[in-house]
Design a protein that fits this description.
- The chain is an alpha/beta fold and about 325 residues long.
- The chain has a single domain, classed as Metallo-beta-lactamase, Chain A, CATH 3.60.15.10.
- It is built from ten helices and 14 strands.
- It has a seven-stranded mixed β-sheet. It has a five-stranded mixed β-sheet with strand order 8-9-10-11-12. A two-stranded antiparallel ribbon has the order 13-14.
- α8 packs across α10 and α9 crosses α10.
- The radius of gyration is 20 Å and the shape is globular.
- Bound molecules: zinc ion.
- Zinc ion (ZN) binds next to loops.
Length: about 325
């Protein structure tokens, strides 16, 4: 097994290259290089770390021109952000492959039109100043990624030739609507993107609609259904999008489910008898959030967390919600 300064061979011909990402969570991002008759790169890191990726390839005696295909597990900038620069640095054509539902993220940097995000935030009851703050922060985040046209789509069940190995595309919506894992069935290896991480519970982000309207899909429900799909595959090892590999999926899944239950209870306990907005519940749940420098992003994650849990609590009959004067009001049943 080759161990260089910048990459680790995790299985014969499969190299993990860990690339820096600002902030503590979820921490550095893992890109995977499959070297065989063809060369595939799974996830790219941000546009800021393409040079490091280039050095990692050089240590393996390769360059960007050796890459045939880039696949992205989902349309978040730390997973696709370097694709454009990599394509431009290659002397040959590199095919960029993503899932249909995450194409917009890769091609525009936004998973939904701005109007949808603004509608969602307003409906959650955020103060007026919040959306411009978020747009400003997004502007800085956007500098970590270059939008890039997608050349081909990968679909559920599709078989992929990864040089030495064959992989199957497993659709695992939850973290994003189009998230996928790649499964090497014979070897029992799953590349889990951001769906399963060892050190943090991934966010099941709200699946906003393309038009101003509340999400119809329930991210938390889909997230846990996807976990069941992954468990049914019985992978021996999971190589994750951030952090360490996982060999004990059962205990990670158990931990996730326990954390979910605890969070459900906590969200429920935060709802006051008076009509609450999602924003006020989120602030109650994370009282110190405004001290964080990345406050708008953390606040968005907090709102997302509360909202996606409320979707489940409402389905279970614990709460009811109503749109009143363009704000979502939450009541305990
Ligand atoms: Zn992600």
């Amino acid at each position: 097994m080759t161990q260089t300064h910048l990459s680790r061979e995790i299985f014969p011909g499969i190299h993990c290259i860990t690339l820096p990402l600002p902030g503590k969570r979820p921490g550095p991002v893992n890109a995977y290089l499959f070297v065989g008759d063809t060369v595939t790169l799974l996830d790219t890191g941000t546009s800021r770390t393409v040079d490091i990726l280039g050095h990692a390839l050089a240590e393996l005696g390769m360059s960007f021109s050796d890459i045939d295909r880039i696949m992205v597990t989902h349309g978040h900038l730390d997973h696709y952000g370097g694709a454009k620069k990599i394509k431009e640095a290659s002397r040959f054509e590199i095919e960029l492959v993503a899932t249909e539902e995450d194409i917009r993220g890769v091609e525009t940097g936004n998973t939904v039109p701005q109007a949808s995000t603004s509608f969602f935030l307003r409906t959650m009851g955020v103060p007026f100043l919040f959306p411009p703050l978020m747009r400003t922060l997004n502007f800085f985040f956007a500098r970590m990624a270059d939008n890039c046209p997608v050349d081909a789509i990968m679909e559920e069940g599709q078989r992929l030739d990864l040089g030495k190995y064959e992989a199957t595309v497993v659709r695992t919506p939850g973290h994003t609507r189009g998230s996928v894992c790649l499964f090497l069935e014979k070897e029992g290896i799953l590349f889990s993107g951001d769906h399963i991480l060892k050190h943090v519970t991934p966010n099941a982000l709200p699946m906003l609609e393309d038009w101003p309207g509340l999400p119809e899909r329930k991210s938390q429900v889909e997230f846990y259904e996807s976990i069941e799909r992954i468990e049914a595959l019985e992978p021996a090892v999971l190589h994750t999008g951030h952090g360490k590999s996982i060999t004990d999926l059962a205990s990670i899944a158990e931990f996730y489910r326990a954390a979910f239950e605890a969070r459900q209870k906590k969200v429920l306990s935060m709802i006051r008898p008076k009509n609450d907005s999602v924003f006020t519940i989120a602030r109650r749940l994370f009282p110190n959030i405004e001290r964080n420098l990345r406050f708008p992003m953390e606040m968005y994650l907090a709102i997302s967390e509360v909202y996606t849990h409320l979707q489940v609590l409402e389905e279970e009959g614990e709460v009811c919600t109503a749109l009143e004067k363009n704000r979502l009001r939450v009541y305990r049943n």
